[in-house]
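Subject: Predicted fold for Ring-cleaving dioxygenase MhqA, 319 residues

User T.R. writes:
Posting the sequence so we have a shared reference for the thread.
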Amino acid sequence: MQLKGIHHVSAITANAKQNYDFYTNIMGMRLVKKTVNQDAPSMYHLFYADEKGRPGTDLTFFEIHRAGQTYPGTRSISTTSLRVKSDKALTYWKDRFQKYQVDHDGIIDRFGRKTLSFRDPEGQRLTLISDEKNEGVASGDSWDHAPVPQEYGITGLGPVHLTVNEASKTEEVLTEVLGFRKKGTYEQRVVYETGEGGNGAEVHIEEKREGKPEKPGRGSVHHVAFRVSDEDELKKWEETIQASGFPHSGIVDRYYFKSIYFREANHILFELATDGPGFSTDEDENHLGEKLALPPFLEDKRKEIENHLTQLDTSRTRE
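User M.O. replies:
I've generated the structure tokens; pasting them so everyone works from the same file.
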């Protein structure tokens, strides 16, 4: 068994409307599913991804209206990366961030790749990473109806950056339980990879032994999910996690994929998720994310759920 790479990253927003505006109109990502948190259906769960919503391209957000400020620290997924095709694309994005007054840094080299760090309006910590020298897991395709030229568009998720108190504990989980390989180091961070490797299959770990745990809120990351081929393999992973001694959720049916959740030794929430069946299970591919989608087990509560949600117009017309 081998995990294929990053499946999705799920974060927290306090304002779904503002979040939708930023990630579609500024970042040019496609909303491929407007649904709810299945464990708390009174809140939105928004999925932004590539043109088809492929696994490995999903950045998702739970809307928690009263989410307070995030106080960064350890035991956290500190930065999420988004992939672009080329170094030239980063220059485009730097100009675009200046135009739209998006808080950002300069273009720098990290671990042999060009990167551009920035923050969304709620302080979500993000980095664009160039695939120009990338070898490994293939990216998706940027959305052809985005307000961003397709050659510069976002094509998927890149490495996630974890900040922990004791790096050896997380390393043990990654390598001994989940089968990651150590790839190298840079700037006091250690890089691990899985599957075919590359930008879409890496976890970067930074150790801060005396750091205080992060206080999560709006702009923080809730969990990271890793890709599993299918349910049969997920069952084998369930046995592996059980044997490792970590408490876990068991297999949970999320309708668009099936998952297992557990907290690694530094208390960061990991998820293993199947590649399928995917987001076109209940919507036409040309109209993903335009209406509120509910899994069958919540459909009979649609009116009640809609009454608790703030209005969010995501309708659009495709040419």
